Amino acid sequence: MALTSEPADRLVSFGNQLIDVHLWLREELARLRSGLDTYLSGTGERPRELRAHCLAFCSALTRHHTAEDGGVFPALAEAHPELRPVLDELARDHVQVEEILLRLQALLDGLPAARDEPLGAEEARRVSGELDGLIALVASHFTYEEKKLVAALDGLSVPLSEDFALRDLTGG
Fold first, then answer.
1. How far apart are CA 16 and CA 146, in angstroms?
2. Are 161 and 67 in contact (CB under 8 A)?
3. What pLDDT does residue 57 have?
4. C-alpha to C-alpha distance for 85 and 6, rounded to whole angstroms
5. Which among 38, 68, 75, 90 counts the fewest CB atoms within 10 Å?
6. What whole-number distance in Å separates Cα of residue 9 and Cα of residue 86?
């Protein structure tokens, strides 16, 4: 696992890296929502492309959360013991997000292979519902995490995993 440079050497604070990753993930989630909406309206992305986009997004979000759970949160808990209840709550959110991602991926994998195959109203409602749930949870989670952790992240003096900033995906 590659690590970011030491805090004195970095040009962007860890707090700003968190915000940048969250912005990118929010944009990708909005693109996924748009792709699903156009698919459900009978136009837009084919199911294969929609599934691939979801898989890429899900993978990126999981990598970011795994980096937080495995490296960032323990470092913050050590440096700021008063944040442990917040970190525990955020880690529980990560489990809920992962459960939704798995259900969403399974639903998207079940979409008809061709555009001309009909998608039932109940199936469309379930896919939309899971995505809406994911969007709501992620929006709340990101806002809470940013509010509670940015200042503490900026004060960390340990290197963090590259997956925390998702550099290979976001161009950061």
1. 9
2. yes
3. 87
4. 27
5. 38
6. 28
